[in-house]
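Help! Submission page says 'invalid entity' but I think these are all valid:
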Amino acid sequence: DAGVIQSPRHEVTEMGQEVTLRCKPISGHNSLFWYRQTMMRGLELLIYFNNNVPIDDSGMPEDRFSAKMPNASFSTLKIQPSEPRDSAVYFCASSQDRKDTQYFGPGTRLTVL
Amino acid sequence: AQSVTQPDIHITVSEGASLELRCNYSYGATPYLFWYVQSPGQGLQLLLKYFSGDTLVQGIKGFEAEFKRSQSSFNLRKPSVHWSDAAEYFCAVGKNSGGSNYKLTFGKGTLLTVNP
């Protein structure tokens, strides 16, 4: 089975531009997570979806960040406008149920100049 | 709130030597515990997990971990390290009940270097 798929793998953009990160969870999984990884703060949960519904977005840093899950097989994380401090690796993970093992995608390395 | 401490930021071992990576957690009840490994430029791969039952857990790639409730620890061990084990290792704790039982809290990670 294919694992969690993320695109793009690398993104370089200029400050002020809109950035959209994409995620395809493992088929049959009903929970989806977006994380951000930085040297300073480690791995942080940004938002959690269950059955396509956002349950916990308390980790979203500010209004510039938004996430959607229009169906069970696709989710996006959007940053608009992007800032240099948003530079990080963004991971998507999915699990079969809310407290089951989370399986991570390869991540998107975002650089905002 | 739960928390995880990985006291060692960086560990260097020789190939063939034994390995123990430390993990201490803070949580009011019996937690779910995980070890993940991250190779450079890759996502996190699950090594092993503890939900309940036997406190000695076997994982992939020859790793094992032991849950010690009295010490609030979940240390990762391997009897003989291979050069391919060089990576960053993350311990994580989750809640086994309650409304936020989906939430994993990760440690800051331990970077493992393996000398030939």
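Support: the input was valid. A stray whitespace character was the problem, and the output above is from the cleaned input. Chain A has a mean pLDDT of 94.
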